[in-house]
Amino acid sequence: MGRWSRLLAPLFVDFAGVRDGERVLDVGCGTGAVSFAAAAIPGVNAVGIDRSRAFVAAARRADGTRVRFCVGDAAALPMPDDDFDRAVSMLVLNFVPDAAAASAEMIRVTRPNGVVAAAVWDYREGMQMLRAFWDAAVALDPGAAARDEGQMPLCARGELPQLWRSLSLHDVQAAGLTVTSAFASFADYWQPFLAGQGPAGAYVCGLSEDARRRLEARLRERLSATGSGFTLTARAWAVRGVVT
């Protein structure tokens, strides 16, 4: 999903309203897509935090000079109260055990009148690459439906704004952010699944060789891409609110 997060990051940073000279915390920073997009704005002091040491190490290797990266838990941020102008989190809250607790921590470390923003993929309806994958997988194996990311929390329209309002943030605003990615060939689409990352990748790697070939063939037919390129879109739901 790396290609998608890199496309989404600048749109999300713009939606979050990051401005010159602000201190910005990127919670669940992964390999740094949002942190680097924020740091590209003049004068922004960006800090990225993730519980994965491997992701933090990769982010530091990518560019450890513009952004300070650290290891930590979203539900227990090792930062003082009111430390940042904005706290943002992209493609994380639907994966954490307690999204409300993680969001409350983002609010705690953000100054009064600062902004807290988040985004998650619209796994239910807005991810063409995954919708094609799971539709093909379920057609061959009905049990695959239990693995579909579309069942994750916070992925439906309106769920993130509801969470933000429950946390007493005000001036809550929501938007759908859509990105498009070009695939040079079917292999360009298929190969990332073979790495085993995420629910879809884990499903592929758990299949027998024969079942994997059947799924690959069905996806080729579905996407009409036996050698030529094609494009797919992905939508994320985003929300922002102001700290009281």
Automatic annotation (TrEMBL):
The molecular function GO annotations come to:
S-adenosylmethionine-dependent methyltransferase activity
Q: Which GO terms fall under biological process for this protein?
A: methylation
PANTHER family, sorted: 2-METHOXY-6-POLYPRENYL-1,4-BENZOQUINOL METHYLASE, MITOCHONDRIAL (PTHR43591:SF24), METHYLTRANSFERASE (PTHR43591)
InterPro entries given for it? Methyltransf_11, SAM-dependent_MTases_sf
Identify the CDD domains for this entry: AdoMet_MTases
Q: Where is the Methyltransferase type domain?
A: 25-117
Organism of origin: Mycolicibacterium agri
Q: What is this protein called?
A: SAM-dependent methyltransferase
Swiss-Prot/TrEMBL keywords: Methyltransferase, Transferase
